[in-house]
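Researcher: Going back to the complex we discussed earlier. I've cleaned up the inputs and rechecked each line, so this should be the final set. Can you rerun the prediction on the complete assembly and write out the structure?
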Amino acid sequence: MSGAVSAEQSAQRGPREWALKVGPWILLFVILAVLPFQFPSFRVEQFCFWMTLAIAACGLNLLTGYNGQISVGHGALFGIGAYTTGILITEFGVPLFGATVAAAVVCFFVGILVGLPALRIKGLYLALVTLAVATLFPLLLEQFSAITGGSGGLQITSPQMYRGEMRERPIRLESPIAGLANDQWKYFLFLAITVVIFVLSRNLIKSRVGRSLVAVRDNEIAAESSGIPVSKVKILTFGLSAAIAGIGGSLFALDQGQLYPSSFTIVLSIYILVAVVVGGASSIIGPAIGAVFYGLFSDVIIQQMPDRIQPARAVILGVLLILLMLLAPGGVVGGVRSLQANFASRKGGSPGSDPDLIM
Amino acid sequence: MRDFLQILLVGIGDGAVYAMLGLGLVVIYRSTGLLNFAQGEMAMFSTFIVWTMWSLGLPMWLAILGGMAGGFCVGALVHQVAVRPVGDPHEKPLAVVIVTIGLFLGLNGAAQLIWGTLDRSMPPLFGRGQVTVFGVAVAWQKIGAVIALGVMVLLFYLLFQHTKLGLAMRAVASNSESASLVGIPVPRLLMLGWGLAAAVGTVAGVFIAPNLGLGTNLMQLTLIFGFAAITLGGFDSLVGAVVGGFVVGALSSVMPRYITIFEKMPLAPAFILILAVLLFRPEGLFGKKQVSRV
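Model: Rerun complete. Updated structure for the full complex:
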């Protein structure tokens, strides 16, 4: 069922169907808009982190979910985005969001470089190479400590007016609006960027380019013989995916103000991948859901448990991942879709959702 | 020159450990076609079992046997509960990668829960002494690692080439469908393969732990070296794992010494090796070339 047909159908079904389709989105946006006013500042800060994770997961999803190339190394690309941002601001005085754009560009090219082997390497082997990248990255940061600060960390500073003179001061995202606290301002800024990235990704996937991504994933030979430039598609997807992950990393840098190699270990790469599969690979909204699930899990639920069993968090996460792959490999979105399909076929109606329908 | 030899020998000693880890990876790859990202954590877990038995007062060799048995059970269990139900790794690579990552997280967390986050110290199996050969000092521990590797390779050779069980395992690796048709209990043999791989990993862990300190991230770097070893040797070749292990060990010991850019990251040569081999000779030195019919 292609997007065009379903749009036509929903138009024919009248306003009630339309409300059912648009209603949840309106509700979602209302909730998102109210959130920062309902929660204390530290929670809002956590939401900001979840959003950076969601952006990186969105990038990984284009690559892994839609294009079928597995990367266990997106934490490294996230880190490159973060460090590019930090170094550009601190050393070269680039304006904050100018550095974000630059980070995206840098990550695009790094992604193309990492993606080059993907032309010959597939599946598990590509996962192996990207795993090695992820393991290597924190060591690289230590090796080039002259510019990255090594394990001592990188403090992101910019020249600011302070007591009447220009000084190097830690960067801050200050709210220009009187009614908004700094963290709330940051929240809305990040939310806007996140929404734009998700909407652009959705449009990309619904376009001709997006269909060629999926075609390459499903059958490379068939795609090639119907005129899709497979190599170009794979390489560019890698670049684009890396650029998006880099934007996530860049926002992370702006959010934190200081960067340490220990934040960008293999564990981060794993979490980004977890966000993708928990939400549901190859659905646009999936990675966002996955990031929220992960955030709720690690920042809210686990924090309620006594200190002694904190390491249980990894055990629970591991067991959940395995169960998820066994019971609902499509993640949350996949599970909901198959429930819908089940329900629809029991009612005797048309099958509700197509596995490749884009949410 | 003496300096070079010294570093080379250290590297070869490390290489023996990478080769042991590689053997486990190859056994699993051959039987299930899967790159096991949790192999290192399985080894770490069973090394902790060895440590526990040793610190309870058992002699070291008995503790190691106990750890191997424990590792075998963990490996077999993991295969039955988590790996087999997911399905074919080449049809659903993402699901399989995620499952091994889940195992990675689960085993790591479980080890932290049981043994805490502090590093434990474990004595070197062959003591701290060293011998001097041609003016170069070599630690007994490194020589011991090479010998242990030799014994393991011999045992694997005997198992695969001279026993009915080994023949059955080879049959499963080469074509599991036909093997199952002639009455070989395929799932049970796969389980056995996973158990063996984990048991071999135990020995690797026992040799590494005295150097690095026994902590829950004992194997995370070592695993990449192990992967580099089997990538070079060929994913399905036991001989390849051994040769690859030695080459990787030597490279990652020698190169950081002479090339300053690798100084703090002996992992970098291993990474470059993985990349180069996969790009230019994906079947490795000894592996079977993969041919797919279009």
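Model: Worth noting: Chain A touches chain B through 47 residues (CB under 8 Å).
Researcher: Good, that matches what I expected from the previous run.
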